[in-house]
Fold this sequence. Notes:
heterodimer; A: about 300 residues; 13 helices; 2 strands; B: about 325 residues; 12 helices
Amino acid sequence: MSAASSWVRTPPEGRRKDLYQRIVFALTLVATLIVLAPIVIVSAYVLREGASAITWEFLTDPPRRDGAEGGIWPVIVLTAYSLLLVVLMAVPLGVGAAVFLSEYARPGRLLRLINLTIINLAGVPSIVYGLFGAAFFLDILGGQKSLWVVSATLALQALAIIITSARESLLAVSRGVREGSLALGVSRLRTTFFITLPQALPGIITGVLLAISRAAGETAPVIVVGAIMAKNVSLSPAAVINERAQVLSFELYGRIIEGIGYPEDRKWGIALVLLAVVLLFNLSALFLRWRISRLGSVRRN
Amino acid sequence: MAVAPTTDQAPRRSLAESVRRRRTGAVWEGIVEAVIYATGLLTILLLIGILLLLGQQGLRLFFEMDYPVGRFFTFGNAITENTSDPEKFRFGIMAPLIATGWVTLVTLVIAVPLGLATAVYISEIAPPRVRLYIKSGAELLAGVPTVLFGFVGLFLLVPIVRETFGWGAGGMSGMTAGIVVAFIAVPLIISIADDALQAVPVDFKENAYALGCNQLQAIWFVIMPAAISGITAAVMLGMARAIGETMTVLILGGGNSSIPELPTESMRTMTATIASGFGNASAYSLLRPALFMTGAVLFLITMFTTIIADLVLDRQRKRFSR
């Protein structure tokens, strides 16, 4: 554009227009940088304040003196159990629903209604999932406040993300592959299981990783359904049913609210562990998606 | 299936067998397919279940516990105390509702210009590679747990607000919360607005250039108006996100339960009221159903916003679908 303006003598008005354009474009760049700044600020701040608390003892010891000393080992283990449980509950249901939407449902009112439902489920505030979890699992099913109730609530919330991403990656599998299989006389279900799903798998895994990352960071529903602060309990898998929930996000929130008497650097240490877990899943999802898009472009050529 | 039968009637039996086998296979497949159908319908069941259960738990407040409906919707405070006496219970949804309104307003005032400017930058100005990086960055931003935003905001932003403006309770106010929530809502706005801008056919832009527009004019007078449905939907979904956000407003809002007259006051939104009150709400107090009722109102507001946003988005989809 600058080359053109040196060739043709732009009238002053035109030049002013270009100046406006430059200013506006510069402003959009500034806006972009402002939007991205919080990631850097949050990560840097948490790292600066929390790094000193991260020791082997902090990560692998049970808490002593109400958590003021020792470590957060039980919280880490129970968080892992909870995320595993979320995957076990949400993935079969979510992928099943996605298969229904992409392979079985015919275009029409029902499909439109279910798609609208999923958009709505994704938009339901997390705290409402918490209320639903408390009412359904505790009041109606009569469960005790425990880790599995928290996990089940988080799994319901994860459902929308998993369905959406699985549906998109199933729909992205080319029609020809599917039709080729059907033309060989393979039933629709077997085509789905042996042809379509394997091809869509990387995309599905991306969605699952994102859902895990969300579930790990989610705090509001955990508060509502009920969790406790770090406590030394039995860590066998039976803890899922027998023990109250201890998860990283709630541990962090509780320590902020409790405030006094808990060492500052330990609070940030918990924040750092939480951030690390969430970013780990998030970045692996992004990496996987990036790999898929590259593979996709190669395959197409 | 693999080994061929060795009897003399081999061909006929194997045919009959293969038919039978296909039928048993069909039974299994029928079962699995039924399960798949069921999971599809489960989503609808879940959404309806949320609405029904919240309503059932919430309406007990009026029908079983005799709390006046009018008072719930007009009383200007929302005190989360455990009591089973309808006379003493001072809880109305007005104050949390207005607090949510203020925080959402602050959020949108910040997030909409930032989000749309970013969407225009990545969709129209930046090279494709940069676009990919920034989209990934926005997604990362969306992934940061909101409790961390609240915590970092409490230590970084609240002292600044307290010393320079003196808003709310020691720097904690609707405004403070809204500023932070803006960064939580912005990734969603960017993602949907970017999709909307990308969906505008290239011809539009080329025609604008042919008519002598420069790039900015093409964006402002042609591309953005063409994408207006998608942009509206982006703003509405960002709004729904802000309304539903809990942790940051709980940590940074200040927690005053009365009606806030200005966004700079300490306040407690609907989500924060539920989160702070539910833990100690006993099963027999009025508080528990009152919080469920608040949750039901919250649910209806976000659902309504989401449905309208989807209808608006559908308009754009139909317009540009080939």
